[in-house]
């Protein structure tokens, strides 16, 4: 895969985008960006503050962050879990990047994510299952490639590296 193309990771909240994205960037010697951090930096407000105004307000900010990130070259991006809710984000990212869906089961997500601190999961564990049902089709449709996160993180990173190495 061309070194200039961005690596864009999408998937459910708690599927490992931020953790694996950061580790992948370090393995590949690329810069890493967490889209949620970019939103906070660009808007000068925390994610819960933006959601407290409205989800639409957060989603608008997410589109602005997607534009900023897609203007860069050769970076690894961990998107927010809801990035697929605005198809515009995916079109923006695909102009300069390749989209990877990190697919982790809701069972594994609820087993080690503190749902209470994530705005969309604050209603509890069932919300993870509901969101997965609601979004799985959108993640698959948006993805250029799908990687299952059902093994130790080092193995998932190996799979990422092999796949990226094999993309023309
Ligand atoms: N393959 C895995 N094995 C063990 N823990 C994992 C694995 N993938 C993700 N995790 C853990 O899941 C939690 C959520 O990951 P995070 O990177 O915050 O997800 P996201 O950014 O997608 O919301 C973290 O504690 C992370 O260490
Ligand atoms: O799934 C979602 O709609 C969201 C996921 C969060 O990111 P993570 O996927 O990193 O938790 C964050 O962008 C925001 O709370 C909305
Ligand atoms: Mg994250």
Automatic annotation (TrEMBL):
Its cofactor is Mg(2+). Mg(2+) binds at residue 18. Coiled coil: none annotated. It is found in: Cytoplasm. Pathway: Metabolic intermediate biosynthesis; chorismate biosynthesis; chorismate from D-erythrose 4-phosphate and phosphoenolpyruvate: step 5/7. One of its GO terms (molecular function) is kinase activity. Binds 1 Mg(2+) ion per subunit. The keyword Magnesium applies. Keywords: Amino-acid biosynthesis, Aromatic amino acid biosynthesis, ATP-binding, Cytoplasm, Kinase, Magnesium, Metal-binding, Nucleotide-binding, Transferase. It catalyses: shikimate + ATP = 3-phosphoshikimate + ADP + H(+). Belongs to the shikimate kinase family. This is Shikimate kinase. It comes from Megasphaera hexanoica. The gene is aroK.
